[in-house]
Amino acid sequence: MSLYDQRGVSAQKDEVHRAIANLDQGLYPHAFCKIYPDRLGGSEDWVNLMHTDGAGTKSILAYLYWKETGDISVWRGIAQDAIAMNLDDLLCVGIFDKILFSSSIDRNKKRIPGEVLEALIQGTQAFFEELSAFGIHILYAGGETADVGDLVRTVVVNGTMSCRWPKSRIISNERIAPGDQIIGLASFGQTDYETEYNSGIGSNGLTSARHDCLEPAYGIRYPESFDESLGNGLAYVGRHRLTDPLPSNYAGTGEPQSAAAASRTIGQLLLSPTRTYAPLMKVLLEQFPDRIRGLVHCSGGGQTKCLKYLPGDFRVVKDGLFDPPPIFHLIQEGSGAARREMYQVFNMGHRLEIFARPEDCPELMRVAAEFSVESRIVGRVEDSDTRELILRWGQESIRYESL
Question: CA-based, 20 to 30 A from 270: which of 183, 188, 200, 261?
């Protein structure tokens, strides 16, 4: 049983998938998001979508950082996390504009004062204004802020996006086929539309990242920040403080962003706001929709996420993966986790995958470079009798079977 499982979280969410197994799978069962007929407009040429996600336990890291440093601005990053985790899921079905967003914030009022709520709400609106400059229009439609101290120790930040979209512009993943190559879009570095270095952490695996990196003193000072049922060896077992600089041995991973990572504290790296690929993907979806055969957001499940959205029994081979950026080396050393677990919990360097024919990849990658989003061919799709994923580094490989 992995440390991730022992802490009460799951990268694969097996119980959740069993619970929803008998629900309507929507119009396109292989699409990254569930898509329904146009109940709102009644048109056969349009579809409806409603999707919910959030910042997860990253909000606890923000709580610790805010309590330790007094930096209220950290909550703006949590607002971006909740938005990007929704928006980038929508990108994977081809949707990038004319979206409604409703936020859901559950807080323990005794620990999360009004100034934190203001930072979250104002940060949400500010991020939407930034996106509008790229032609991505999201209307902030309010939401629910609940004081539920009996249920929530600190704060939970989620949101729901809804949209009505032309059916002809949906990416359903049904065109993914053997021979396709997979373009990985880096989760780390600094794009033209970001103001600082992004560690690439995203909003998945933060339960492990927090406990495996941070020292036991955080559990003593902030018992509200973790589940008291966790035994020894599971809660805050790391060696670092949030304000510590990245140790020098992690700056030599061979990535060009290592120097930028070395200038950030561990807390800043863990709290890097989830990158959205929306400015880049808007251009690709508008200019080259026919060249994109499928899209996968490597969120929960990390590099194994693609297995859930293949339209057939194919083999996916990823043998050109990015070298993991420094934050993941830090987490792996703290946890002692094997590669198998790291790659199914964390994105490990790229968080969005584009499936395309080999002849179309250079043009798609050229556009990515215009936004300073690093990209590379990370793998390919092969014919197979079973659905499987193989990660390969030289002579070493890891095989994952379809769930």
Answer: 183
Contact in structure between 50 and 101 (CB atoms under 8 Å): no
Edge-to-edge strands, sheet with 99-107: 36-37, 46-54, 155-166, 99-107, 138-147
- CA-wise closest residue to 287 among 164, 169, 128, 167: 169
Calpha distance 339→322 (Å, rounded): 14
The two three-digit tokens of residue 372, written as one number: 């300073």
- Please state the φ and ψ torsions of residue 353, each to the nearest 5 degrees: -120, 135
Q: What is residue 31's three-state secondary structure? A: coil
State how far the Cα of 92 lies from the Cα of 182, in Å rounded to an integer.
14
Q: Which tens digits make up the pLDDT trace of 325-366?
A: 999 999 999 889 999 999 999 999 999 999 999 999 999 999
Contact yes or no for 35/213 (Cβ under 8 A): no
Phi, psi dihedral angles at 400 (to 5 degrees):
-120, 135
Which CA distances in Å does 174 have to 116, 171, 329? 43, 8, 35
Confidence of residue 10 (pLDDT cuts 50, 70, 90): low
b or e along 187-196 (b: 16 or more beta carbons within 10 Å of the residue's beta carbon)? bbbebebbee
**Pair of tokens at residue 18:** 């069993």
pTM comes to 0.93
Record the tokens describing residue 398, joined without a space.
């890891």
Q: Where are the alpha helices (DSSP H) in 97-139?
A: 114-132
Count of helices and strands (H, E) across the chain: 13, 12
CA 75 to each of CA 56, 355, 391: distance values in angstroms, whole numbers, following the listed order: 13, 34, 36
The span from the CA of 143 to the CA of 120, in Å, is: 12
